[in-house]
Design a protein that fits this description.
single chain, 622 residues, alpha/beta, four-stranded mixed sheet, 24 helices
């Protein structure tokens, strides 16, 4: 619903009138709505072609006036894209292709029937589920931040206004004093969603106390492997973030802000840039917002991909055009941050929570979650799990619920081994803690952390020593190198882990890793270094037997560290199906049909194709 007439909204009454007229128009139109996901994930699967086919098909059937098609943001169930949902019924069609469009229009839109071949089939129950809210992936979520992603066009400011967008801004401008806004945020119990988990209200109050040209900044430098929560919010609902920032600016008395976003997020930059442009045209950003006399504007700065720039002081250094290097924390950024001025920095998800709190109240928000972790949290659920995507649940929801009830469990009937939370600096949590409620404090107790919300699931075929090595290798490359403990400590730990995975580990290596890890955590300058040992220390803590097997027995039971295992054919299980022989790229497997096959160890490159493809468990790891 992109209006060409971008007339300026001069005052509060005009905004209310526009909102009411947009809602009334939707009611009077009585159109059916097709929400077609156009987030980065679905876009890669072919949303553009589906959209073109859909518009052509509707034109052919003369249905353009009866059906509205919206290219929405990410719906969360990313592996099932492109996702198409028909409202008001909530009919859910996943993995829609161009060739499916004619059936959807003919059978569902014209005749009111379901396209049976397109109905979602739940992998666990094997049942066909036609309504979005009944799909297990969505059923247990509480999508207070992410819910509008599937209902609005992110390029339309009118769409956002029609779902009560900028209502919180209006309230903050005309009904609340700055200290009242801060009190609401403080009483809500909102904690920063970027990783630190610091009280948002206290941060705002501290910034407001310091004199100077205050800056309100959004951290959209999302660098955790496998994490894309912030990207999807910026792509699918950019105005929610912008509105939160303006409310924050009113609270602390700021007139200028920045969004520091990853250069690798072109669609997020495009949609947020358009949101800024349209908000300015509508009088919701810039000078004299809604005729209130309050001025505030936002600029976009694109980061160069340095993971360390997710840290507050490194981010602000980069914003200033300097190398992205952290500084010591004895002076906080709320006192002296960007340009040596008081700076209020929160991440994308934190800002998106602000309008919700102002609209619904601190008490309502605080009723969700746990005692010290309020509200919901969006997690990026990836790895060895059936349903991958973005999951928004109340704080305190158990790992078991997220991974097995929402995520559908582990594929191919394999066993769960661990889940790594909190990004590359997070810890690996074993099966015995699956009933742990996920919040800031509980994750810390078991050696991990919330981080920005990354959640990587691992199964029985994962080598925990190699996992620690992988994440440390990532962190070594991303360390700014400014302080010795981080630079040299991570490098030394990585060398030890690499030797262990290569079969060159020795007695005392485990204890040395623990000693160095403790030093790095205590002595590093910034959060990257202080949390970097977590993957190593938690894997030693919960999977020490794997380290010992690598060092003493020179064995990798998971079959990941190539120098420490080999494949062998189990004669009792081999049926002679010939599948492994056909798939082997090195012709290392030979044998006649329906007879036991043989594997030539000299030719085997341990690629694992035979192991993954065997249906009879005849390929074993030794």
């Amino acid at each position: 619903m992109l209006y060409q007439n971008m007339t300026k909204i001069e005052n509060r009454e005009a905004l209310k009138e526009l909102r009411n007229s947009l809602k009334l128009k939707q009611q009077e139109d009585g159109k059916r709505l097709i929400s077609l996901c156009a987030g980065s994930g679905c876009g890669a699967y072919g949303t553009a072609k589906v959209y073109e086919a859909l518009m052509a098909e509707l034109a052919e059937h003369d249905m353009q006036d009866d059906v509205e098609v919206k290219l929405s943001g990410c719906h969360g169930f990313c592996e099932k894209g492109p996702i198409l949902v028909i409202h008001p019924e909530g009919i859910f069609y996943p993995q829609v292709k161009e060739k499916h469009v004619s059936k959807i229009v003919e059978e569902t839109l014209k005749n009111g029937d379901l396209v049976k071949s397109l109905i979602f089939k739940d992998p666990a129950s094997k049942k066909r589920i036609s309504r979005e809210h009944d799909v297990p992936f969505y059923k247990l979520q509480q999508r207070i931040i992410f819910g509008n992603n599937g209902l609005i066009d992110p390029t339309s400011i009118e769409d956002y206004i029609s779902v009560d967008g900028y209502k919180a801004l209006e309230k903050a401008l005309f009904d609340m004093a700055p200290e009242e806004i801060i009190a609401q945020i403080k009483d809500s119990g909102l904690r920063g969603r970027g990783g630190g988990g610091f009280s948002t209200g206290i941060k705002w109050a501290t910034c407001a106390r310091h004199d100077g040209d205050r800056y309100v900044i959004c951290n959209a430098d999302e660098g955790d492997p496998g994490a894309y929560m912030d990207r999807s919010i910026l792509e699918g609902n950019p105005h929610s973030v912008l509105e939160g920032m303006i409310v924050g600016a009113i609270a602390v008395g700021s007139h200028e802000g920045y969004v520091y976003v990853r250069h690798e997020y072109p669609l997020a930059v495009k949609n947020f840039s358009l949101a800024l442009e349209n908000a300015r045209r509508r009088g919701l950003l810039g000078e004299n917002i809604l005729g209130s006399g309050f001025d505030y504007d936002v600029h976009i700065s694109r980061g160069g991909g340095a993971f360390v720039c997710g840290e507050s002081t490194a981010l602000m250094a980069s914003l200033e055009g300097n190398p992205g290097r952290p500084r010591a924390k004895y002076i906080h950024t709320v006192e002296r941050g960007f340009r040596e001025s008081p700076s209020l920095l929160n991440n994308v998800e934190t800002w998106a929570n602000v309008p919700v709190i102002i609209n619904k109240g601190a008490e309502w928000f605080a009723s969700i979650g746990t005692e010290n972790s309020k509200g919901t949290k969006i997690f990026s659920l990836v790895g060895k799990v059936v349903n991958t995507g973005l999951v928004e649940v109340p704080m305190g929801t158990s790992l078991r619920t997220i991974i097995f009830d929402i995520g559908g469990g582990i594929p191919k009937k394999k066993k769960f081994k661990a889940v790594q939370t909190g990004g590359p600096s997070g810890g690996c949590i074993p099966e015995k803690y699956l009933d742990l409620g996920v919040d800031f404090d509980e994750l810390t107790k078991v050696g991990s952390m919330m981080g920005s919300g990354g959640m990587i699931v691992m199964d029985q075929d994962t080598c925990m020593v190699d996992v620690a090595r992988y994440f440390l290798d990532f962190l070594k490359e991303e360390s700014c190198g400014q302080c010795n403990p981080c630079r040299e400590g991570i490098k030394h730990m990585l060398e030890i882990l690499t030797n262990i995975c290569a079969g060159n580990g020795k007695e005392g290596d485990i204890e040395l890793l623990e000693e160095i890890g403790d030093m790095v955590a205590k002595a590093s300058l910034c959060g990257l270094g202080t949390s970097a040992p977590n993957p190593v220390l938690t894997t030693i803590r919960y999977f020490r037997d794997e380290y010992e097997a690598h060092i003493r027995d020179k064995k990798c039971a998971a079959g990941v560290c190539k120098p420490l295992f080999y494949y062998e054919i189990d004669e009792e299980n081999c049926t002679g199906c010939t599948l492994c022989a056909k798939k082997c790229p090195e012709v290392a497997i030979t044998g006649e049909k329906k007879k036991v096959h043989y594997l030539d160890q000299d030719k085997c490159i341990k690629c694992g194709i035979c192991y993954d493809g065997c249906k009879f468990d005849a390929i074993v790891i030794k």
